[in-house]
From TrEMBL, chain A:
Keyword Secreted in record: no
GO MF annotations in UniProt: electron transfer activity
PANTHER family hit by this protein: ELECTRON TRANSFER FLAVOPROTEIN BETA-SUBUNIT
Domain called Electron transfer flavoprotein alpha/beta-subunit N-terminal: residue spans: 23-211
Keywords in alphabetical order: Electron transport, Transport
CDD domains per the UniProt record, alphabetical: ETF_beta
Pfam families assigned to the protein according to its UniProt record, in alphabetical order: ETF
Protein name: Electron transfer flavoprotein subunit beta/FixA family protein
Organism, as annotated: Paraflavisolibacter caeni
Family: Belongs to the ETF beta-subunit/FixA family.
Magnesium recorded as keyword: no
Superkingdom, natural source: Bacteria
From TrEMBL, chain B:
Binding site for FAD: 207, 232-233, 263-270, 284
Role noted for this protein: The electron transfer flavoprotein serves as a specific electron acceptor for other dehydrogenases. It transfers the electrons to the main respiratory chain via ETF-ubiquinone oxidoreductase (ETF dehydrogenase).
Molecular function, one GO term: electron transfer activity
A Gene Ontology BP annotation from the UniProt entry: fatty acid beta-oxidation using acyl-CoA dehydrogenase
Family affiliation: Belongs to the ETF alpha-subunit/FixB family.
UniProtKB keywords: Electron transport, FAD, Flavoprotein, Transport
Needed cofactors: FAD
Domain Electron transfer flavoprotein alpha/beta-subunit N-terminal: residue ranges: 3-194
Cofactor stoichiometry and binding remark: Binds 1 FAD per dimer.
Gene3D superfamilies membership: HUPs (3.40.50.620), TPP-binding domain (3.40.50.1220)
Identification of the protein by name: Electron transfer flavoprotein subunit alpha
Amino acid sequence: MKILVCISKTPDTTAKIAFTDNNTKFAETGVQWIINPYDEWYALVRAIELKEADPSITIHLINVGNADSDPIIRKALALGGDEAIRVNTQPADSYSTAFQIAEFARQEGYDLIFTGKETIDYNGGAVGAMLSEMLDLPYVGLATSFLLNGKTATITREIEGGEETVEVPLPVVVSCQKGVAEARIPNMRGIMAARTKPLKVVEPKQTETQTVFSGFNLPPAKAGVKLVSSENVEELVRLLHEEARVI
Amino acid sequence: MSVLIYIDHSDGQVKKSSMEALSYGVKIAEQIGAVAEGVLLGDVSTDLPSLGNFGIKKVYHIQNSLLQIFDAQSYTKVIAQVAQQTSAKIIIFSNNSAGKSLAPKVAVRMNAGYVSGAIALPETSNGFNVRKNVFSGKAFANVEVKTEIKVIALNVNAFSVSEGTGNAEVVSLNIDVEAPKVKVIGTNKTKGTVSLTEAETVVSAGRGLKGPENWKIIEDLASTLGAALACSRPVADAHWRPHNEHVGQTGIAIAPNLYIAIGISGAIQHLAGVNRSKVIVVINKDPEAPFFKAADYGIVGDAFEVVPKLTQAVKKVKGIA
Ligand SMILES: Cc1cc2nc3c(=O)[nH]c(=O)nc-3n(C[C@H](O)[C@H](O)[C@H](O)COP(=O)(O)OP(=O)(O)OC[C@H]3O[C@@H](n4cnc5c(N)ncnc54)[C@H](O)[C@@H]3O)c2cc1C
Ligand SMILES: Nc1ncnc2c1ncn2[C@@H]1O[C@H](COP(=O)(O)O)[C@@H](O)[C@H]1O
């Protein structure tokens, strides 16, 4: 059994969001980079748990990115996983990321591919679904629980207004979110082991550009809070009713 | 040339988010001089010609018992066949749970550029540009779509429904439907309550509530307002509330008309999931709580005193007290 976990690099959740080059580029100076939380906390940790239950499982991590990704890939390896692959290119959009991963995954024949629900920077939420289409595999999006029973998976997924549990034969592509696993912290042994795990760099395949992020801007600042005394709750309701018109 | 809108439904009813997508697709069709048409898979109790009220001329209705199960793989093949047969140039989805699984797959199948989480009509004077939220609501981006066919998933609550009168022609097409690989073995719908992502009002509470036993006052306020419930991450992590109520950067992102945050400090990761709300009300006993900086209205006070009073005051305004 072989599992592929897709890992992306995102700015820390507290990073200051600003843009340079006439608002066409994210300002990276001083930004701390992390593993996208959905990929780390849910996709990767669930894969590690599956391997703990069945040591014959092999876990590969994949990232599409340039050498700046190496620190977060090492951190992911410190949590677990057997080896990592980096496709050496800065992806333009979810499509190009999915394309590069699909090209690699096709040769390896994974039984299970995990992605996070979305990246917290560009919020595409698309790589997993696109990958499944490129590989013509079933896709279960927005998973909140994942169980393996031999050659089938039992997955609970978010649907509008609730959850649904489905059974699907492997191989399958699954996008993970909260519920699938509980976040962990890498330990010293993992950190030491990660240093010697293979990180393979492969060159990208040629692909077309479908979409381009052509400009960014920040939302206008809020006008400031209108405070109402706790002794006068009716006044708040009046404001919401008559001024904001939301009640 | 047409704009094709995917019409999602559950419990026999067309989703409000799909009505938004219909209204959005019809506007785009007007803008580029195309016709707007809908596609609906499976059975609904809604009267299909009445979907013409949203401005579409035709509804392609694909019925097949194999479509009873939502399988992204088989649904995608059906939608792509409809798009091909009708020469659709722009395909619109709601960016809801179903749309998030389908739209990217349909885009790949149609060799179309994809924009998820669109929040405005495309700008077509210089290329085809769509505005979307990025950095979890902390910024906007313009995405230029370079391909001939385009797929857009419209954020929920980002575009208002416009309804007139009209009659849509219901058309069935000859489409191959593949057996789903996915088998549904159980559903768990939060009955009677409003779905969090579609809700116009959301009442949310955090660690300031001290424990799960204190949620009664929050639930009372929510039911009085007809609101959905949400919570901060530590509340869900501690299992005080179910994880599907967790909003924020690593939870669900929402954009209701009114968001009421009670006993939540307003950490940057929490704000990332709620800052697209139109009006934010904060109730917190600490006047220095960062949430007040992101709020439109606020009360500095103890939730246990303020919230029951607030519920009473809302009842009075709504004439139910
Ligand atoms: C990578 C990362 C991702 C994260 N993602 C998320 C996320 O998606 N969503 C999220 O919510 N958090 C997220 N967090 C956590 C976030 O940083 C905060 O820790 C969390 O939001 C705090 O929750 P809280 O406001 O409920 O609790 P606290 O910070 O403990 O705040 C409780 C508040 O209640 C007030 N209070 C106390 N008693 C009362 C009372 N009687 N009446 C009124 N007010 C009272 C206090 O003044 C305080 O402001 C994330 C953190 C990290 C590092
Ligand atoms: N550059 C990347 N390299 C590897 N995996 C990625 C990359 N970008 C996104 N992913 C995976 O795809 C998921 C969804 O990404 P996105 O569609 O970009 O929001 C992420 O949670 C990751 O699991």
